[in-house]
Amino acid sequence: MIPRLYVAEHLQKNARFQADERAAHYLVNVLRRGSGDPVLLFNGRDGEYRGRIAEAQKRRLTLEAVEQTRAQDSEPDLWLCFAPLKKDAVDFLVEKGTELGVARFQPVLTQHSASNRINQSRLTTVATEAAEQSERLTVPEVLEPISLEALRTGWPKDRHLLVCAEAGDAAPIGQALSALTSDVRLPHKYAVLIGPEGGFQDDELDRLKKLPFVTPVGLGPRILRAETAALAALSAFQAILGDGAKRPPRP
Ligand code: SAH
Fold it and tell me: Which residue spans of the chain are classified as CATH 2.40.240.20?
């Protein structure tokens, strides 16, 4: 298996740079790789390069880009907004959301949120490793939490928000998405909002449903855990409106 690494540096033919701590540890200590061994490199901007370990000293590891294997391609501009959950559930949600093509994770504080903080640096590492494994060409960003009020008032005009509503009337997500595609007036950027384990407060849901950029959606008759609901909504979105029809880049 050729290790695939996200790097910060600019990538071009024969570019050489020092691997960061995380990459050096992974390549040398975990995978026991050394000088001359191949790697795949991407940085979110220059596509993907086949490269190799040029030098492997004690703590210094030099990587070299050899040739471009994939051009930078557009990826779905899909946001996942979620109420902070317990640590393991948030890690799971960020890892799976990254595999399912999320571009931005936006934690949202609701009345029943399990906590009002997230560990942004840990979740960024989770997202980075999931992007490396799933052969993405970008790493999603993980933002600091905002209030539901700030989400409502600061929402960008060119993005539609699918609110996963476990209660009240909400169109099944499949129908809702098909209806949205036929409504050409609507923007082509989307986001999904998932509530906390305790669910949305009635007044939270009522206020959300009144917003012009919101479509409440249902995910079937069962009450899903928040992290399950996120995956169900993201999978439905990618299949119907996203990049579900594309195939992995390497045969
Ligand atoms: N505690 C609540 C459920 C919360 S589930 C109760 O028992 O009623 C956590 C979140 O997952 C919800 O806020 C909603 O966003 C989403 N969700 C779970 N099941 C869903 C469903 N069947 N349809 C739409 N959204 C759902």
Answer: 4-70
CA 99 / ligand 1 centre spacing (Å):
22
Region 4-70: CATH code: 2.40.240.20
Class of domain 77-240: alpha beta
Pocket of ligand 1 (CB under 6 A): 164-166, 194-195, 197-200, 218-220, 222-224, 226, 229
Sequence ranges of the chain with CATH classification 3.40.1280.10: 77-240
Write the pLDDT tens digit of every residue in 145-188.
999 999 999 999 889 999 999 988 899 999 999 998 776 666 67
Separation in Å, CA 137 to CA 66, 150, 222? 17, 30, 35
Whether this prediction's pTM lies above 0.90 is answered by yes
- Between helix 87-99 and helix 226-240 the angle, nearest 10°, is 10
Q: How far is the CA of 114 from the centre of ligand 1 (A)?
A: 14
Q: Kindly give the distance from the C-alpha atom of residue 225 to the centroid of ligand 1, in angstroms, as a whole number.
A: 7
The candidate with the shortest Cα–Cα distance to 139, out of 166, 97, 173, 103, is 103
